[in-house]
């Protein structure tokens, strides 16, 4: 006998999650509406082909970020199926549009707990993802901007001073010591498993893949806004320009998702290949495409994970019915 699936009152946790999504979507819509005139004029200069390529590349980049986080979480002892990992990561990441830095990690900790991931492990994976992306982003920016032209990186060489520090911090022995110290100060239990070099390398590999995809998304936009740079150099420049502007934006943690800071940095970095008006249009179009990508990934991941759970429940119920029918036949005999 199976119990009917039905509604009932929403639990406080479900109400809280719905409220989180509504607030995050509200701030995301506000970020778009506040610059809509400039954004719409920029999009008017883009072909549908360039826009489609940009969106596809952004989705690939966001997926690379999810796999970076997933690799760290798995190395810490909580491997998740891709569907479930995508739901936790992408839905949680919507919190970055809310002012403050705690919302994404709180959301990931809450959703991860439903999948058996300890909160301390979710928090560790979240905070480790940031320096992995920052360190890999600065390295990618240095390599690609130098390849595109030495003058492109010269004004921002000071940012590269962080690379040696991040390289030290990304050494697993150092990371494990820092995490252990932090947990002791917070009077929390230590992590069951320490981060390994293999796990760190896997995370760095996915992060590098994400930067390349982000560069392709920006190149598709720049190519339509008046840049005359040859294709390969434009791609290399775009990868470095996006990585550098993202890193500068993420250093300003008081602004939701680096809003404003990343765009200002991108306009400055794009000055060698675009005039100021086109650079502003490129920065704003890039931001809107990324917001759209965040929403698309979160929606698809949540829907896919929900269908997976529903299918598993149906299979379990069908299995239960078959067991009861077999028991009834045996009793009849």
TrEMBL record:
Record GO cellular component, one term: plasma membrane
Membrane topology summary: Multi-pass membrane protein
Keywords from the UniProt entry: Cell membrane, Membrane, Transmembrane, Transmembrane helix
Primary localisation category: membrane
Subcellular location: Cell membrane
InterPro entries noted in UniProt: L-PG_synthase/AglD (IPR022791)
TM spans (from-to): 15-36, 48-69, 123-147, 153-179, 200-222, 234-257
Keyword match Membrane: yes
Pfam families: LPG_synthase_TM (PF03706)
Protein name: Flippase-like domain-containing protein
Taxonomy of the source species: Bacteria, Bacillati, Actinomycetota, Actinomycetes, Streptosporangiales
